[in-house]
User: Which sequence fits this backbone?
């Protein structure tokens, strides 16, 4: 308790007042200062509200309601030939409707009738046999060509290997001859050096 009392006696009012004023100053400068700090950053191309702005839609032709998706034309208004695109679309719609009407299947019996009206069974079997035969011929041709290429590669590799072995043997013989010659020269130099040392 004595320590607390001595500590309180040592606290000077000037120090307390300084800390208090510094805290208030810090609070006021952060909370009440520079309004731009907490606001949004300036936007590029920002204009004051009283300035007349340009209308970007004047640069492009606007679509007028024409009945397409979202009640507008489905063709780009900058396209040169809109009529041709519309004619093509109408032709595709008519073709699709015709296919639905002619080949539509409402029941299994109708599917059977459509199937029977198609290519006859004998012709289908013949076509299937031809397809299998042509596939077998293509496979045989590919196998023969691949085998021929493989044999040619083996011949080329064997020829290259024999040439490489011949070159390596020749180089080895040349190197051995040079080594024998150097060894003889070294031995001769050693003998000459020994004779000089003896004299």
Assistant:
């Amino acid at each position: 308790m004595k320590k607390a009392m001595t500590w309180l006696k040592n606290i000077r009012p000037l120090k307390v007042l300084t800390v208090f004023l510094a805290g208030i100053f810090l609070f006021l400068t952060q909370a009440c200062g520079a309004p731009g700090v907490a606001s949004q950053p300036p936007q590029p191309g920002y204009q004051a509200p009283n300035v007349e702005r340009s209308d970007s839609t004047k640069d492009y032709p606007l679509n007028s309601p024409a009945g397409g998706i979202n009640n507008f034309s489905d063709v780009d208004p900058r396209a040169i030939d809109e009529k041709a695109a519309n004619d093509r679309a109408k032709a595709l719609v008519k073709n699709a409707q015709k296919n639905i009407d002619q080949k539509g299947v409402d029941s299994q019996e109708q599917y059977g009738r459509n199937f029977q009206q198609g290519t006859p069974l004998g012709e289908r079997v013949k076509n299937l046999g031809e397809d299998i035969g042509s596939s077998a011929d293509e496979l045989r041709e590919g196998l023969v060509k691949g085998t021929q290429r493989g044999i040619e590669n083996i011949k080329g590799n064997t020829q290259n290997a024999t040439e490489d072995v011949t070159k390596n043997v020749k180089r080895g013989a040349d190197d051995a001859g040079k080594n024998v010659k150097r060894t003889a020269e070294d031995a001769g130099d050693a003998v000459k050096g020994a004779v000089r040392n003896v004299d």
In short: The chain has a mean pLDDT of 77.
